[in-house]
Design brief:
Blueprint: H1 5-32, H2 35-57, H3 63-91
Length: 92
């Protein structure tokens, strides 16, 4: 049984629509968070990124240096997350 091009387009469009709706729900749930919760999530992600960079680089950064780097990268990581959300949305 061969799937026609029209059926393929319908399936791909349906899957994209489902992912788009899920992405809308994710963005809505993030925007519903208060500043403290949202900031805490961004801070946690930036701390994990700094810990990963520390582990991959083979260096042993002090806790103070890691906290300072996490605070420094928190805003760029937050902006990058917004960019990625909307880039995925435009792709879908």
């Amino acid at each position: 049984m061969k799937i026609t091009d029209k059926k393929k387009k319908i399936v791909v469009s349906s899957v994209a629509a489902i992912f788009l709706i899920l992405l809308y729900m994710l963005i809505f749930s993030f925007s519903e968070q208060d500043g403290e919760t949202s900031g805490g999530l961004s801070r946690m992600i930036s701390e994990k990124c700094v810990a990963l960079i520390n582990a991959l680089s083979g260096r042993r950064l002090s806790e103070l240096m890691m906290e300072s780097l996490a605070a420094y990268f928190e805003n760029p990581i937050r902006k990058l997350a917004h960019f990625c959300e909307y880039a995925v949305m435009s792709g879908l």
